[in-house]
Every structure is written in structure tokens, then in C-alpha cells.
Design brief:
This protein is mostly helical and about 120 residues long. The chain folds into 2 domains: about 70 residues, no CATH class; about 30 residues. The chain contains 6 helices and no strands. Helix 1 packs across helix 2. The termini are far apart.
């Protein structure tokens, strides 16, 4: 396949993906502009939506060529909470004093509500 044909195929793929994302982003921005129009607020974000759709389509097409299969297969589909809690460090080792205080107050209030 020649370089010209590859470039043509890539542009076609980007165009289709950008059209897809542009339609969805455009629908959301249409809702936003209609809501803002009710309150007489002008909205001028349409060009950012076009650029966002183009960037998003290019990211999706690049990620199609990234192999994540081995990484995903190596990760568990289900996480055992008991095992995760025993493997972690104690809460006091990785949290600040304020976080521990908030956690203890929350636990106390929960215990009072349960009783």
C-alpha cells in the first residue's frame, strides 16, 4: 500500500470518528446552549467542540494500535477486598492526622446511628 493510500485511509478514519464524536458533543452543546439561552446567556463554544472532536478521534485511532491485551489479561477481573485490605499498609501510615480524625468521627457517628 502506498503512502498516499495510507494517508487517504487515515484521513477517512479520522473523519468518520470526528463526525461521530462531533455529533455527540454537538448534541450536548446544543442542550447547553438552549439552557443558557433560556437565561439570556450567550454561548460561543462551538469551535472548541469541533477541535475536541478532532482530538478525541485521533486519540481513539492511536489507541487502536496500542496493545493493552496482555496488560488487561494480567489484571484480576474481580478484586478481593479482604486481600486488598491485608496487603495495604495501616491507615495511619499513609494518611494525615486530619484524615484520621475525620475517619474516627465518621465511624463514631455511624456506630451511634446503628445503636
Amino acid at each position: 500500500m502506498s503512502l498516499k493510500q495510507k494517508l487517504k485511509d487515515e484521513m477517512k478514519a479520522i473523519g468518520l470518528a470526528a463526525l461521530y464524536f462531533g455529533c455527540w458533543i454537538g448534541a450536548l452543546l446544543l442542550l447547553k446552549s438552549l439552557i443558557l439561552a433560556e437565561h439570556k446567556i450567550a454561548f460561543h463554544g462551538w469551535s472548541a467542540a469541533v477541535v475536541g472532536a478532532l482530538v478525541l478521534s485521533k486519540v481513539v485511532l492511536v489507541l487502536e494500535h496500542v496493545s493493552l491485551g496482555a496488560w488487561v489479561r494480567a489484571r484480576p477481573a474481580w478484586v478481593d477486598n479482604e486481600r486488598v485490605q491485608t496487603d495495604r499498609q495501616p491507615e495511619s501510615a499513609n494518611t494525615s492526622g486530619i484524615a484520621r480524625l475525620v475517619t474516627s468521627i465518621t465511624k463514631e457517628r455511624f456506630d451511634q446511628q446503628v445503636d
